[in-house]
Amino acid sequence: MFELWLELTNIPSEGVYYTINDQRIWQQPINDFELPYKIIGSVLADVHIQPQSEGYLIQGSINGEIVLPCSRCAEPTNLELNDNFKIFESVISPLNEDNISESAEVTYLRKLSGIFELDIAGILWEQFILTIPMKPICSEECLGLCPHCGHNLNYETCQCPDLQEDLQMAVFKNIKLKQ
Asked: How far apart are CA 174 and CA 35, in angstroms?
């Protein structure tokens, strides 16, 4: 994955603002993970990093537009990204030396030669993914695909019989309960 490290050592107490428009932050993981997303134009992030007593407060927004498949009908769907985020990256490790190998915590901070650096690309990719709905749909009225023949019910009705019962639950139809 693409990394973009920012040095945090000399950030003033009021913080620093960044506008990040490097499309590799989003496009490289999309390609690496073979995700069905296409960026329209460009995705931009505005980020404010402010030092705190035990770490860094990172606030920002991600704006742009992508195309991805509708989860009901699989047709391309435009999704406007317009999301704000606020996270805290601690410089204090919650681990002691006995359980370092058991940590599952993801951190985007590193310390090299006494200098803290932040992988802003990792944070922005994480926020990008969190912005995308788990089940994006083209519209609330989307009828989806016929589960039997696969026709897109938004454009045509299929000739499949009207099955009112759920085929996966049909096996339970003949169960008899003793009273």
From this structure: 43
